[in-house]
Design a protein that fits this description.
Layout lengths: L3 E5 L10 H10 L4 E4 L16 H11 L4 E7 L6 H14 L4 E5 L18 H20 L2 E5 L4 E6 L12 E4 L3 H10 L2 E4 L11 H21 L8 E5 L13 H12 L5 E5 L11 H15 L1
Parallel strand pairs: 1-2, 1-10, 2-3, 3-4, 4-7, 7-8, 8-9, 9-10
Antiparallel strand pairs: 5-6
Helix pairs in contact: 2-3, 3-4, 4-5, 5-6, 7-8
């Protein structure tokens, strides 16, 4: 399989002031998927405009035809499986089966306290995800679900007619720890990583590749334990969080070199951030579009 190129469009633009145009341009450029972040607010964008992921994806579905759409990623921080399932089934219907759900444990950012709760520990986040994903799987594949868990409950939750995509829309599970990797191996159609965050500030690109190779190997072990072939899972690298930072977007050659090194690790999909001026995701738009249109052919 040749390496696929996707993008993530942060939901900070008003729809009629650049938001719609970005999603339509992503389709024109030939990206496989356009994702958005599912946060209530995020990092340096907290005090500026920031819109909801599901309404944004719904609008994007209405103005595109071929582009796959998805979250990267949704977490239990402010989501409940019952209400989320209803939104996802609706979104999958509106898009005619073009939705991928990126899902992960979340972190300690603004989402973690926006509902008034104390931030959950890493152990609790992992435990919640371990309940969240299987319940969501049931809600998206069964007409009626009742469940009583440690964190989530459902009472005769109806989800008819289910997803357009059968048996349900695909899950892309973001994980690097053992519990999350087991979830990816059992429930995922794809696995997502951003690399090793400990290397972002002081690590080298070479160290990052080695760390990611280790993650891929652990995913393989988890798949073996689950009785599954690791090659069944797509492997997605969300770029911009390795020690390479934005350097791969400085030229087509730089990107092809970066992408080639990660394709050798088994990645099927690379995701690059849509350029945002005066941010960590600033990039030359002409180079970005050239990468979108030409890089995949050089990596085939």
């Amino acid at each position: 399989m040749s390496l696929r190129l996707s993008t993530v469009i942060l939901p900070y633009l008003r729809w009629h002031e650049g938001g719609r145009a970005a999603w339509q341009r992503a389709e024109q450029l030939g990206f496989h998927t356009a994702f958005t972040y599912d946060h209530l607010s995020w990092r340096t964008f907290r005090d500026g405009p920031w819109f909801g992921a599901v309404p944004t994806l719904t609008a994007a579905a209405a103005v595109t035809d071929r582009l796959r759409l998805g979250t990267l990623v949704t977490s239990p921080n402010f989501r409940h499986p019952v209400t989320l399932a209803k939104e996802l089934i609706s979104l999958d219907d509106i898009s005619d089966g073009r939705i991928t759900l990126g899902v992960g444990a979340g972190g300690t950012g603004f989402d973690a306290t926006a509902l008034g709760q104390e931030p959950w520990t890493p152990r609790e986040r992992a435990s919640r995800l371990a309940e969240f994903v299987p319940l969501l799987d049931r809600l998206l594949t069964e007409d009626s679900v009742s469940y009583e868990g440690d964190f989530y409950s459902a009472h005769e939750a109806r989800n008819i007619p289910g997803c357009v995509q059968r048996p349900r829309l695909p899950f892309a599970v973001a994980a690097t720890g053992p519990r999350g990797l087991r979830l990816a191996a059992r429930y995922g159609q794809a696995w997502v990583t951003t690399g090793d965050p400990k290397l972002y500030e002081t690590g080298t690109p070479e160290q990052s590749v080695q760390a990611i190779r280790g993650q891929v190997e652990k995913l393989g072990v988890a798949c073996t334990e689950a009785g599954r072939d690791v090659d069944e899972l797509d492997k997605i690298l969300l770029t911009g969080f390795t020690p390479d930072r934005s350097r791969p977007l400085e030229s087509l050659d730089a990107f092809v070199d970066f992408a080639g090194r990660h394709a050798e690790l088994g990645f099927t999909d690379l995701v690059i951030h849509w350029p945002i001026p005066d941010s960590d995701f600033a990039a030359d738009e002409k180079i970005f579009e050239r990468i979108a249109m030409e890089a995949a052919a050089q990596l085939a």
